[in-house]
Amino acid sequence: MGEAINDLQRRLADGLAKIDPYHRLFGRPVSYRVIDGQALEVTYRDVAGIADAELQGVKRLIGRDCSCTVSPQTAESVTVRFVVPLK
Q1: For the chain, what percent of residues have pLDDT higher than 70?
Q2: Which helix (H) or strand (E) holds 41?
C-alpha cells in the first residue's frame, strides 16, 4: 500500500505542473490521508477556483477511478478533495 501511495504522490507532483497551466492546484497546500486502509484522500486547500477540465486532468493523472468534491473553504477559496481507492 505504501508503494501505491508513493507512486500516486510522485505522479501528481510530476504531472500537475503540466496539466494545471493556471496553477490552481499546483503549489497549493496539499495533504494526504489514508482512510480505513482502503482509500487515499488527497486534499488541496486555498484553491481560488477550478474548472471541470482541470479536475478531469487530475483524474487522468491519478489513473484510476476516484471521486472528487469541491467545497467552499472561504468566500474566496475552495477545497478540492479526491478520494482514490487503494485496492
Answers
A1: 100
A2: strand 39-47
